[in-house]
Amino acid sequence: MTSGKIKVGAHELQCRIEGEAGNPWLILSNSLATDHAMWQPQIDTLTRTHRVLRYDTRGHGESAAPAGPYAFDDLVSDVIGLMDALEIEKATFMGLSLGGMTALGLALDHPDRIERILCCDARADAPDLYKQMWPAMIKKAREEGMDALVAPTLERWFSTNFRTNPTNRPALEATGDMIRRTAVEGYAGCASALMRLDYLPRLSQIAIPAHFIVGEHDPAAPPNVMREMAAATPGADFTVIPGAAHLSNVERPDVFNDIVATWLARS
Ligand SMILES: O=C(O)CC1=CCC(=O)O1
């Protein structure tokens, strides 16, 4: 395992590499207000077959938080910059929510570098709800700090069943800590990108294999929305994770890992 900072353009991104050298590359991209640690439940499974690169999206975790607003083009170029710096010619890319949206941008604009994508719990558009919700969340983060976002965010990200089961307290606390550690400027920068998200009209141009995965109870990227995204993407697969809400990889890791490992083995 190696971890450290890599300079991409004018700022540094925190990275962590696990799995055997020589295995095909798989890059994992985090959701808004988390960091690369959100993928911990997947690491044992995915490193059996892949060399896994996790990174903290700009403005998150230990990566730099340059002044916003950011655009998805920035988040996409960061990934290509990391691949260049690490001499990764081609990789499979999996992202959840903000990371899943980044996956769409990579599939559309860099199909020569990205072999296939897994787009989890992500939309491709900015509905009216996003245009109202994100300015309010940015204001709250700036005025009250990230701590004020922890409770309402955990409520959106995990089902009631998961949140009320005491055995899940460590996962909830770890996720709450990631939210608290996120830089306000980084959160605001990425939330601004969400307000201008506009990949939906281009999904029919995706020309690499794609798998859309969503938690059954995801309120942010509901299954009916992601089913339509998959239908608009040539040859795409679509899977619902039963019982999970937004962070489906944390809420149902066994189901999530089986689905991902099976798809990676056959696509
Ligand atoms: O925070 C949410 O509820 C939804 C979300 C949008 C982008 C992301 O990463 O999470």
Automatic annotation (TrEMBL):
The gene is pcaD. Residues 24-253 form the AB hydrolase-1 domain. Its EC number is 3.1.1.24. It comes from the Bacteria. One of its GO terms (molecular function) is 3-oxoadipate enol-lactonase activity. This is 3-oxoadipate enol-lactonase. Pfam families: Abhydrolase_1. The keyword Nuclease does not apply. Keywords: Hydrolase. PANTHER family: AB HYDROLASE-1 DOMAIN-CONTAINING PROTEIN, MONOACYLGLYCEROL LIPASE.
